[in-house]
Amino acid sequence: MRIFRLTFLCFLMFAMLWSVPVASQAQESTDLDVDTPIVLVHGIGGSSYNFVSIERALIRAGYDRSDIHAIEFWDKSGNNYINSRELRDFIDNILRKLDTPHA
By three-state DSSP, how is residue 39 classified? Predict the structure, then answer.
């Protein structure tokens, strides 16, 4: 039984050590489309401030602050009928701003 445990632990350590470089290589080769706006949508009872740490991480990853948008739903009860229309209008407004040439 002791040999089995030792073998298993060696295999587990080998697998962990082998996977670390593979994971870091995958992250380095990922191409981000930093020109695409991002809309962060909170859940029932949530708020746009829930995304402060996510926004910081996205900015560190290369996104511009002006391309990160977090909606603040008016109806916090989770009414999907109302919130879906508010989200639609929010996204339409973002897309409209993208189509407008900057002065």
Answer: strand
Alpha-carbon distance of 40 to 18, in angstroms, equals: 35
Confirm if 86 and 73 have CB atoms less than 8 A apart.
yes
Contact 69, 90 (CB under 8 A): yes
Which ranges constitute the DSSP H helices of the chain?
A: 2-28, 52-60, 80-99
- pLDDT tens track for 46-64: 888 889 999 999 999 989 9
Residue 12 in this model has a pLDDT that exceeds 90: no
> Are 76 and 97 a contacting pair, CB within 8 Å?
no
Instruction: Give me the CATH code for the 33-103 domain, please.
Output: 3.40.50.1820
Other Cβ atoms closer than 10 A to 86: 15
**CB neighbours of residue 94 within 10 Å:** 15
